[in-house]
Amino acid sequence: MRFSRKIVARLITLVAAFVVIVSMATPAHASLIYSGDHNIIHMQNGYCLDSNAAKNVYMLPCNGGNYQLWDVTATFDGTCVGDYCADAYYITLKDVATGYCLDSNGTSVYTHACGGAYQTWDVYSTSDTLYQDATGLCLDGSGTKVYILSCNGGAFQNWEES
């Protein structure tokens, strides 16, 4: 069966429109809002968020160990804009190996016994940025260092789950 160029052009347009509609219906970069045990991966260098029993936080190449596994607890805050709710979540990250939660005092990043106000992070779904409610700063990293910094929309502030 042979189709005319006009029909082929219409089919291509229809498929392209379908792809656009499906991609708009899927929440952009919402991967950080899923509860459960996950690796938190720095999107710039591919390293995993890691910590140790001394409460230090850093990044290393992903190795499958429990110190790089984080229990993500996502909580819906009850707000949506129209039908869009991906930014309506906040999360806490608890290291599976240590049982301590990701924390920051606005100067440094570390883990600490869970339950503090400085352990709540908002997820900016448009950029996979972790924004700390208490300080108004974002989780950032470079090389193996993890730190807290003013939110700048840069690639070094983007994280994802795996």
Commentary on this structure:
The protein has an eight-stranded antiparallel sheet with strand order 11-10-9-8-5-4-1-12, with no helix packed on it. Strands 2-3 form a two-stranded antiparallel ribbon. The chain has a two-stranded antiparallel sheet with strand order 6-7. It has one domain (29-161): Trefoil (Acidic Fibroblast Growth Factor, subunit A) (Trefoil), CATH 2.80.10.50. The protein is mainly beta. The N and C termini lie far apart (45 Å). The longest helix has 21 residues, at 5-25. The chain contains one helix and twelve strands. It is globular and about 70 Å long. It has one helix at 5-25, and strands at 36-42, 48-51, 57-60, 69-76, 89-95, 101-104, 109-112, 121-124, 129-132, 137-142, 145-150, 159-161.
